[in-house]
Specification:
About 85% of the residues lie in helices and about 0% in strands. The protein has four helices and no strands.
Length: about 190
Amino acid sequence: MAETTPEVFATEAAEVSTEVGHGGAGTHAEPELFGLAPFQIVSVAMLILLLIAFFGAKVHKTIAGGLDSKIAAIKDQLEEAKQLRAEAEALRQEYADKIAGAEKDAEAMLANAQHEADAILEKAEADSQAMVERRKRMAEDKIAAAEREAVEDVRNRAALAATAASRALIADKHDADADKALADKVIAGI
């Protein structure tokens, strides 16, 4: 019975590991997991790792592609923002130049208007002085003409008065004998 006792206490694992091989010698039992031999476990593990690597690479490529596209979009937005900023700077500079040009033009226009106003004022003064001189000459000419007319009138009246007085004198003091002697004298002088 002593021989049967060790067999009675043996476990199933012991029974599995002590199978009888060829020629009556005992063989070592292979460990199993879920009914798979070790090489099958390694094969399944490698298959799982390859699937994870394959799908993980595709997911990684998808994630990387999505990130790359977002990075490219952000770069494009940054480039567009830089371009818009450069355009805004150019517009700001253009308007600053226009404002400076407008200020210079306004100053030039103001100086030109002042110069024109001074020129017009000088011309008006010169024209008014010329007109005053012209009117003065006209008045002087009218006065001189009036004086000449008055002198001429006085001369004419004096001549008329002298003629009338000489007639009266001649008529009073001259008679026919005096006329005859005067006529003889004039004839002798010829």
